[in-house]
């Protein structure tokens, strides 16, 4: 893939749809080799490639840095967890996995309630869905959960008065992520992983026809 031709919108869509359950890359690989990009085009391509390839590592790093900032404000930890969940619900894979696990747990205690938590069926015309598939969580549209968790997290942020501390920690975490993604030289594994993800996406679209 020519990452130089990938727009920010394409990268965000890819991160939203990709499976985030993959384990993080090993630390020796994560801190292996750093070089200064020779041009803006190479820096732009390297940044997007590393953000996609090391996405799990960056997520864990941001969570650790934010956790260090929360040590003096325990209520802010709960607010951060709710905020993280509201953001994670925007990822299709996470939303589907979360809904499936919750429904499976509820089914053990109340099969009737679990049946109501199933997503509605999408009408199919000539073998294809009649409209774009809408993501549901526990039988409700995704935006309902995003709104509830975002509202709850905003309330806790206001009560804990730790928003400024979190903003500083978040700024440091994002700066560390950008610096690493800018100077970490993409290796062969990153390129092979990109081609593998592209093949899976094409195969998934082909199987849905």
From TrEMBL:
It is found in: Endomembrane system; Membrane. Coiled coil: none annotated. It comes from the Eukaryota. GO terms for biological process: vesicle-mediated transport. It is a multi-pass membrane protein. Its main location: membrane. The chain crosses the membrane at residues 52-71, 77-98, 143-160, 166-183. The keyword Transmembrane helix applies. GO terms for cellular component: endoplasmic reticulum; membrane. Keywords: Membrane, Transmembrane, Transmembrane helix, Transport. May be involved in both secretory and endocytic intracellular trafficking in the endosomal/prevacuolar compartments. PANTHER family: PRA1 FAMILY PROTEIN, PRA1 PROTEIN. Belongs to the PRA1 family. This is PRA1 family protein. The lineage of its organism: Eukaryota, Viridiplantae, Streptophyta, Embryophyta, Tracheophyta.
């Amino acid at each position: 893939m020519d990452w130089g031709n990938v727009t920010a919108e394409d990268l965000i869509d890819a991160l939203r749809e990709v499976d985030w359950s993959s384990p993080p890359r090993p630390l020796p690989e994560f801190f292996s080799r750093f070089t200064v990009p020779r041009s803006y085009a190479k820096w732009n391509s390297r940044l997007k490639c590393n953000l996609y390839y090391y996405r799990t590592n960056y997520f864990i790093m941001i969570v650790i840095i934010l956790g260090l900032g929360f040590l003096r404000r325990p209520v802010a930890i709960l607010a951060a967890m709710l905020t993280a969940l509201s953001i994670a619900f925007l990822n299709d894979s996470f939303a589907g996995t979360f809904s499936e696990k919750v429904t499976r747990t509820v089914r053990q205690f109340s099969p009737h309630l679990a049946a109501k938590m199933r997503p509605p069926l999408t009408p199919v015309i000539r073998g294809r869905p009649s409209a774009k598939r809408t993501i549901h969580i526990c039988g409700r549209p995704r935006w309902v959960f995003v709104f509830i968790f975002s509202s709850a997290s905003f309330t806790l942020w206001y009560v804990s008065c730790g928003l400024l501390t979190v903003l500083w920690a978040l700024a440091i975490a994002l700066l560390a992520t950008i610096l690493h993604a800018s100077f970490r030289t993409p290796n062969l594994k990153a390129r092979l992983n990109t081609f593998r993800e592209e093949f899976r996406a094409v195969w998934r679209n082909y199987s849905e026809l």
